[in-house]
Amino acid sequence: MITYVPDNLWGEMLPSIDNTQLMKDCLEAERFLLNTLSADTAVGVYGSKTTASYSQYNLLSFPIESFQILYHNMVSVIKPCLPKETHVLQCWLNIFRGSEFIDWHNHWKKEYRVIHGFYCVNVTPSFTEYKFEHLPDRVFKIESKEGLLVFGKSDGDMHRSSPWEDFNKPRITIAFDIVPTDTVKREQIRPNYFLPF
What we know:
Blueprint: E1 2-5, E2 9-13, H1 19-36, H2 49-52, H3 65-78, E3 87-96, E4 115-122, E5 127-132, E6 135-143, E7 148-153, E8 158-161, E9 171-180, H4 181-186, E10 195-196
């Protein structure tokens, strides 16, 4: 396990994932999503339609083998790091082309005890930057590598991706939030886009 920021941000290479197949499946899922997602979703800071529509679907609920393999790898790496309570997973697709990127944003407030992260499908050359409330004078730069799983506490952090400069192929990551089940119930969040984790 790689520690980027102690007690906040980690990474792990997943060498058993076939990123070539995963990329094909992500592009197929993107075609499906663009035909079915709400047409009035504004892209805003999210950089792409599939990212801006993250609350309208769960990518890992698609019956696609490469997504299920990724899911099982994520569980084996991340679940041992979670507190002993039940969690659910929300997952979406980030696909950026020609200078697109996701700008500075955060996910959940600290009190919700959420873990968020992303898996790198096709990302070279790019990076993701993080800022943390408890380290206000530092920006942490995570170099993107195919096969890298990055995850951390949603604890006052902000993060963004670098603009994608390869005009021949898209930058693809699969992003996620892992949320305690009691948070979903307490906040009355629509539960149908979550999977058990």
